[in-house]
Design goal:
mainly beta; 3-stranded parallel sheet
């Protein structure tokens, strides 16, 4: 799995295991315009992550695991 697109689906959360060690190839997650409050911590383990789009969600702060090179 390299990419996930889940925009405008009224999601309140992304799956907790998203990006965990079994999914290290995950590079792109786009889930704009939902109701997500915080991304799952498993995304921090997605070593290939290059893009995380959570615009238009209910985030109150940036996650602490934003990595250099991510856009």
């Amino acid at each position: 799995l390299a990419s996930i697109s889940a925009g405008s689906n009224a999601l309140v959360a992304l799956p907790p295991g998203l990006g965990n060690r079994q999914q290290r190839a995950l590079a792109v997650v786009t889930a704009p315009d939902n109701k997500i409050r915080e991304p799952p911590q498993g995304l921090a383990e997605a070593g290939s992550m290059t893009k995380l789009d959570l615009s238009g969600n209910a985030l109150t702060q940036l996650p602490g695991f934003i990595m250099p090179g991510m856009r």
